[in-house]
# Entry
Amino acid sequence: AIQMTQSPSSLSASVGDRVTITCRAGQDIGNDLDWYQQKPGKAPKLLIYGASNLQSGVPSRFSGSGSGTDFTLTISSLQPEDFAIYYCQEEHNFPWTFGQGTKVDIK
Amino acid sequence: QAQLVESGGGVVQPGKSLRLSCAASGFTFSNDAMHWVRQAPGKGLEWVAVVWHDGSNKYYTDSVKGRFTISRDNSKNTLYLQMNSLTLEDTAVYYCAKGGRIVVESRTYYYGMDVWGQGTTVTVSS
# Structure
């Protein structure tokens, strides 16, 4: 299985801040990388697929970039509803694997 | 709109079995791959298994191989996860999820998991 490592594990930010989360794959996965948002007690929600494609209905303040082994999720201007845990997930090979998650909370 | 509803969770003793179900509606179930993902209490997400749209291919995470079986009944729009020889480490919320699919210039691309159920809780305890 491919190991996925996210950083940081947690961060504190204010409304309006630009937030960046990184994800590193243990091997080259091309652009086979997705990002999910999960709020407490809720199911995950797909934000970005194929490293940089915005899922339908997701606000444009979310963006993804990267390829190969290094990827980034950026929230351009953090909103109150964005406080959550974010996971990257590779879909290059089965079994798919998730990163350990990055918790974004209020500063 | 697309909706997934899991059922079948509960409390079970180690070594016993449980079958989860996931009822799909609002989309053409037989067109899409389906996944199970789990989340242990206070932990991150773990992908468990996938079944192709027609049931022709199935893949599992290593920790459940030989114990769990994913299946689907396209006539009933339902996904299943048969879980045998359960251990304490299988305690989790289990989510079913629909595989993403997009058609661009007559080519079909598959990606991620774009619709999720609300989850069903499995507790393995003696």
In short: The radius of gyration of chain A is 13 Å.
